[in-house]
Amino acid sequence: MVRFKQGIIIGVLMVGLCLWAAPGLAAQTSTPVPTAPLHALVTSPSASVNLRAGAGTDFGVIRAVPTGSKVLILGSDAQKNWYHIALQDGTDGWISAALLTITTTPPTAQIPATTAPTAAAQG
């Protein structure tokens, strides 16, 4: 019975420490500041560009996207040669950076890198 009481005391102390530590940790973490979504326009001398399944021409075409379409930038490959984008209907894929004009700030250095699928994963 003595051990049971000690176990309860230890358990309460551990919970108390966790509750005490959590507010301190929360105070040290900053809340992310919301940023405006990054948009781009599809710009090409052609009537449309290919939306691909991955960052590169080795990936299959999901569909054609008309030049002048507004897209949402979700991320980019590490070299920022390809952007992971979403169309207004929610379809996502990859378009070459050379075929997009970013219409919102911040500059491209602030676009997060997205893990791009590999050509081997495409099958």
Question: Layout of helices and strands, plus pairs?
Answer:
Layout (H helix, E strand, L loop, with lengths): L1 H27 L10 E4 L5 E5 L8 E6 L3 E7 L5 E5 L5 E5 L3 E3 L16 H4 L1
Antiparallel strand pairs: 1-4, 1-7, 2-3, 4-5, 5-6
What would you say about this model in short?
The chain is of the alpha+beta class.
Q: Describe it for me?
A:
The chain has 123 residues and is of the alpha+beta class. The chain has a domain at 39-122: SH3 Domains (SH3 type barrels, Roll), CATH 2.30.30. Helices cover 25% and strands 28% of the residues. It has helices spanning 2-28, 119-122; strands at residues 39-42, 48-52, 61-66, 70-76, 82-86, 92-96, 100-102. Strands 6-5-4-1-7 form a five-stranded antiparallel β-sheet, with no helix packed on it. It has a two-stranded antiparallel sheet with strand order 2-3. The chain is globular and about 30 Å long. The termini are far apart. Residues 1-34 have low confidence and may be disordered.
Q: Which terms summarize this structure?
A:
single chain, 123 residues, alpha+beta, SH3 type barrels, 5-stranded antiparallel β-sheet, two-stranded antiparallel sheet, disordered N terminus
Name the CATH class of the domain at 39-122. Mainly Beta
**Assigned CATH superfamily of the domain at 39-122:** SH3 Domains
Radius of gyration: 24 Å
Give the structural class: alpha+beta
CATH fold-level topology of the domain at 39-122: SH3 type barrels
- SSE string, helices as H and strands as E: HEEEEEEEH
SS strand fraction: 25-35%
Silhouette: globular
Specify the biggest β-sheet: 5 strands, antiparallel
Please count the beta strands (DSSP E, at least 2 residues each): 7
Strand order of the largest sheet: 6-5-4-1-7
- Gap from first CA to last CA: 64 Å
For the residues shown, what is the average pLDDT?
75
Give the name of the CATH architecture of the domain at 39-122: Roll
Show unreliable segments. Answer: 1-34
Tell me roughly what share of residues is in helical segments.
25-40%
Tally of individual helices: 2
